[in-house]
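Fold this sequence, please.
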Amino acid sequence: MVTPVLQSLGVDVAALDTVHFSNHTGYRQFKGTKATAEEIRELYDGLKQSYLNDFDVMLSGYIPGAEAVETVGAIARELKLNSGMKPGSFFWVLDPVMGDQGRLYVSEDVVPAYRNLLRDADLILPNQFEAELLSDVKIDSILTLHDAITALHATHRIAHIVVTSVRLEADSPTLSVIGSSIRSDGSPRIFKIDVAAIDCFFSGTGDMFAALTLVRLREEASSAGLLRTKSWLSPDDVTSSQLPLAKAAEKVLASMQTVLTKTKQARDSTLEGMAGPLGTLEKEADSEKRMHLRRTKAAEVRLVRNLDDLRNPQVVSFAEQI
């Protein structure tokens, strides 16, 4: 998902895949392999030996295992070191993919491995559960979410944080994105954007959010004249709702809401076409499994068909200071 989103917005991409799967894991079955730490390093060294590692930004997502996490961190540190005395010339977006809704997708030793990388990242994109793991703060209210973000800023000096998929009440009709950019004294500037929850399970939306955020934040930082500033940070007098990060998140969510709404409409139409008398597949013993596979396929994000919504978002949900 990351590569096509970035390329559709005009970004040249060198993709280093950490997994080689036949399909995403939402299908509950797949074939393929995970890259080892050695394989990840070898691929990067291949780029390096041909002087192809002159990157402006790095986006890291799912990484299979603590050793591989450490390797990716070492690569990011090397790229930062290469940027030398040029503030803002290299920017690392770290999406610490570990789990969701109280369940880890990875082994427990991955959590401390990610914590050790936080100080080097410019922007992190945890979901609510991952923010709890990284901050050691149980999030069950806006107040405790504020505490978690404050702790991450204070402990790791992370410049920018966006916590995704925040739902503090199980039956809430909205999802929230909560973001913050640090002040020079380490305090947060926290904003919130609410969007309507879409009643459908999608796979790949985290990658989509990360890729869009990278592009939109760079655009907003450029407009604010911050690309030669460390971590693209705004002066302290910029309020939370006017931060480049907040403006970027507004555009990201506008694109995502439109694309995902159209995806759900297409999914519903596809599933309605399956209605009627039971067919051969539904009569078989594994019909429940087959229907899950059909529903999952029907909900594949319609990205390529809606590129204009990625490129020209119509913002309707705005950031508010909290």
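The longest helix spans residues 244-272. The mean pLDDT is 94.
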